[in-house]
Amino acid sequence: MTNEEKVEAVKKWQECEFVHQFVCGADGCDGVLVPEINKGLNGGVYLLCPKCSYSQDHIPDMVYYFDFEHLSNLMSVIGVVQKAKAEEDDRINEALSEIYAPNTPIDDDKHQ
Ligand SMILES: [Zn+2]
């Protein structure tokens, strides 16, 4: 994998809404780290905080081999299931409110 490919992989990771972003490790800084190519002697990719210049050499290998497409497909399926469940819950709550307590709102805490 070239450094440029690694940079692309880290960017994908940082933009993915389903994984934990790499954020700055410096006290009180919440900067989102960006990948940079080290042009120095050893080369390689590292993470840099754009807010405070904190840098981190270690990038877990899984970032480079992560199957974003698979995760994205999985999350769409979960989204469809959650939406269907929410609609089902609405229908059940509506039916219950008509049967047991007309004009009385259902307590949401008891119907998760
Ligand atoms: Zn920082």
Question: In DSSP terms, counting alpha (H) and pi (I) runs of 4 or more, how many helices?
Answer: 3
Q: Which oligomeric state applies?
A: single chain
- H/E element string? HEEEHH
For the secondary structure, the number of strands is 3
Please describe the biggest sheet, giving its number of strands, its sense, and whether it closes into a barrel. 3 strands, antiparallel
How far the N terminus sits from the C terminus, by CA atoms, comes to: 47 Å
Q: Could you tell me the radius of gyration in angstroms?
A: 23 Å
Low-confidence stretches: none
> Shape from CA axes?
elongated
Overall average pLDDT: 88
SS-based class:
mainly alpha
Walk across the major sheet and give the strand order. 1-2-3
- Fraction of residues in helices? 40-55%
User: Strand percentage, roughly?
Assistant: 5-15%
Cofactors and ligands present? zinc ion
Overall number of domains: 2
Polypeptide structure, described:
There is one protein chain. With 112 residues, this protein is mostly helical. It has two domains: 3-65, no CATH class; 68-110, no CATH class. It contains three helices and three strands, in the order H-E-E-E-H-H. It has helices at 3-15, 62-65, 68-100, and strands spanning 34-37, 45-48, 55-56. A three-stranded antiparallel sheet has the order 1-2-3, with helices on one face. The radius of gyration is 23 Å and the shape is elongated. The termini are far apart. The mean pLDDT is 88. The chain binds zinc ion. Zinc ion is lined by residues 24, 26, 29, 31, 49, 51-52, 54. The site of zinc ion has 8 residues, from loops.
